[in-house]
Design brief:
Layout: E1 12-16, H1 21-32, E2 36-41, H2 44-53, E3 61-64, H3 70-79, E4 84-89, H4 104-127, E5 131-140, H5 153-173, E6 179-185, H6 191-194, H7 200-207, H8 218-229, E7 240-243
Parallel strand pairs: 1-2, 1-4, 2-3, 4-5, 5-6, 6-7
Helix pairs in contact: 1-2, 1-8, 3-4, 4-5
């Protein structure tokens, strides 16, 4: 029994993008707070690593499939043998291109994984009555939704859409006491960040914009997710929690 006010004991939390970075950290921290965790992603081997890093690994499940594939999503929801009390959409990609080089394939890819896959998965779970009343939906957004940067327009648009969708369903689901909130991180030290095209000099320049003098860690975002998933935040919905080392102050 976990007596912490942030305990997730008795809750089942589903986390997308749980194979690495923020999603992986959220799954692990949720397990430490006694949640049963279901992790989703494309890479089964990496998902297995996440499960192994969780507390009491035998209590958790993994499903490896393409979140953007409707058939796979529907099969997954049909296979659920329990109700979901927490949902975290952390899956995300970026395609950094100047506006004159944009193409439909990249635009659709980013929108599909960053917004549509999570939105349709939540919709299906609720439609199938597999989401508990009083549950919590947490969206991993980004300060890019409100802070412009070159060659980043698709990603910015996707995260702005995440924030709007979050607020829309927060109002719609309030009658079921299902809450919907977003976390808006600044730059986090993850494999996702390492995949960007920023050089060392550019990263040094970017870091100077952070008043607290460093980028964030996945665990710091995970702690916030645990708070929003727990009953401690039961009177919070439609809110964006910014965790960005102060970069939004600039």
């Amino acid at each position: 029994m976990n007596n912490s006010p942030f305990s997730l004991d008795g809750k089942t939390v589903l986390v997308t993008g749980a194979s690495s970075g923020i999603g992986q950290a959220i799954a692990i921290e949720c397990s430490k707070m006694m949640a049963r965790v279901i992790v989703l992603g494309r890479n089964q081997e990496k998902l297995q690593e996440t499960i192994k890093a969780c507390q009491t690994p035998q209590n958790h499940k993994l499903y490896a499939f393409d979140l953007t594939d409707k058939t796979s999503r529907d099969k997954f929801v049909a296979s659920l043998d329990c109700k979901i009390s927490g949902f975290v959409h952390s899956a995300g990609i970026n395609k950094m291109k100047a506006v004159k080089f944009l193409n439909e394939e990249d635009f659709d890819a980013v929108m599909n994984i960053n917004l549509k896959s999570g939105a349709m998965l939540v919709s299906k779970i609720i439609a199938q009555r597999k989401f508990e009343n009083g549950g919590s939906v947490v969206w991993i957004s980004s300060v890019s939704a409100q802070r412009a940067s070159p060659a980043n327009s698709i990603y910015m648009a996707s995260k702005g859409a995440v924030n709007s969708f979050m607020r829309g369903i927060a109002l719609e689901l309030a009658g079921k006491k299902i809450r919907s909130n977003a976390i808006m991180p600044g730059m986090i030290e993850t494999p996702f960040l390492a995949q960007t095209s920023f050089g060392e000099e550019e990263m040094t320049t970017i870091l100077k914009n952070y008043p607290l003098g460093r980028f964030g860690s996945p665990q710091e975002i995970a702690y916030a997710a645990v708070y929003l998933l727990s009953d401690t935040s039961s009177w919070i919905t439609g809110t964006i929690l910014t965790i960005d080392g102060g970069v939004s102050l600039r």
